[in-house]
Amino acid sequence: MNTVAELRMSRQRVIGDIAYIAKDLREVLTLERAALLDGDTEQLDTCTSPKLELMYQLENLQQERLHLEQILRPHALEQDPDHAPEGCGSSTTRQHWTEVMNILKDCEQLNQDNGALVQARMQYLSMALEALGQTQSTTTYDMHGKTHRPHRPHPLASV
Q1: pLDDT in tens, 118-149
Q2: 92: helix, coil or strand?
Q3: Is there a domain that residue 43 lies in?
Q4: Residue 152 has pLDDT above 60, yes or no
């Protein structure tokens, strides 16, 4: 087998790996959403690490795919049954890539929805704490990521 054919096969393998991981990510994001809606902090904690790992794997595979595309680009004009204008290979590979992109769009939407749930929950908690007099409007972070609030005395009781 020649090098170009091997590179094309590698490209197809990488796209397949991206599809597999994207499906796993979609599943984790769905579990994360359920945990957010149920207020299940243990399940939410369980989702965090796999979500980050899957994102890291997707980023690495995308870099590998782009690298393969760059190497294959000069060979695109040759008799190439796998060549496509967008550089994703044969019609089967293009179809597979379109499916991958649809899964990733689902993941993006799920992640945005989950972020909106987190933001709404944070606003609710902030308002509740403010009503209880437990927060102050200005919180700062030092260079170590620790929070600092200005100290204002709160009356504990009045006579």
Answers
A1: 898 888 888 888 888 765 556 666 666 666 66
A2: helix
A3: yes
A4: no
**Domain boundaries, position 18:** 3-136
* Residue whose C-alpha is closest to residue 26's, from 102, 84, 140, 129: 102
Of 91, 97, 96, 80, give the one whose Cα is nearest residue 8: 80
d(CA 1, CA 37): 52
Instruction: Give residues with Cβ within 8 angstroms of 53, minimum separation 6.
Output: none
Query: Does residue 152 belong to any structural domain of this protein?
Result: no
Could you tell me the pTM of the whole model?
Answer: 0.72
For residue 73, what are the contacts with CB-CB under 8 A and spacing of at least 6?
Answer: 87
Q: Residues 48, 49, 54, 55: is their CA dihedral positive or negative?
A: positive
Coil vs helix vs strand at 85: coil
